[in-house]
Amino acid sequence: MRRNSKPFVKREEAAQHRINDKIFASEIRLVNDGEEPQVMSVAKAIALAEEQELDLVEISPNANPPVCKIMDYKKFIYNQKRKQKELKAKQSKVILKEIRFGPNTDDHDFAFKLAHAKKFLEEGSKVKAYVFFKGRTIVFKDRGEILLLKFAQELADLGAVEQLPKLEGKKMILMINPKKK
C-alpha cells in the first residue's frame, strides 16, 4: 500500500476546462467561428462535435447558459502552453548588481569599480552603489556622499539616478537604472 494515500488523478481530469461528458449544464451556448452563437442541448452539441471528430469544450462556465466551443482540445492546450512560454521568454528580468565602496576609496579603485558599473548598465542591469562605514568611519559621511555623487555623475550618460545617496544604518546607498536604448 502507498504511504501518501492520495487518489490517482488522470491528467485530463485535472484540466482547467470541462470537455464533452464532463459538462453538467442542460443547455449551452455553442460558439463557432463565422457562425451566430446558438443555444442547444449538451447532447446535441456533443453529437455535432463527434461528427467533426473534435471535442466540445466549456469556455465560460459562469455564463448563463455556459459558453462552449467545438475544437481539438489537445491542440488548444498545446497552443495555450506555447503562448505562455513565449510570454515568459519576453519578460525582462531586472538584475541588481552591487558595488561597494569605503569612505576612503582611492582614485584607482574608484575607476576600476566605475568600469564595472558601466559594463553592468550596458548589459541592462540596475546598479546599487553603496559606501559602507566601518566603526568610526561614520564621521566621514560627507566623503561618502561626495564619492557617490561623483559616481552618479560619471555614469550620467549610461544610467539615470533612481535614488540619491541616502544613509541607511551604516550604509549610504545610491541606485542607478540603465537608460532605455
Descriptive overview:
The chain is an alpha/beta fold. The chain folds into two domains: 20-87, Ubiquitin-like (UB roll) (Roll), CATH 3.10.20.80; 96-178, Translation initiation factor 3 (IF-3), C-terminal domain (Translation Initiation Factor IF3), CATH 3.30.110.10. The chain has helices at residues 42-51, 73-90, 107-123, 141-154; strands at 27-31, 38-41, 55-60, 67-71, 96-101, 126-132, 159-168, 171-178. The strands form two sheets. It has a four-stranded mixed beta sheet. The chain has a four-stranded mixed beta sheet with strand order 5-6-8-7, with helices on one face. A hairpin with a 2-residue loop joins strand 7 (159-168) and strand 8. It is rod-shaped, with a radius of gyration of 30 Å. The relative contact order is 0.10.
Question: SSE layout and pairings?
Answer:
Elements: E1 27-31, E2 38-41, H1 42-51, E3 55-60, E4 67-71, H2 73-90, E5 96-101, H3 107-123, E6 126-132, H4 141-154, E7 159-168, E8 171-178
Parallel strand pairs: 1-4, 5-6
Antiparallel strand pairs: 1-2, 3-4, 6-8, 7-8
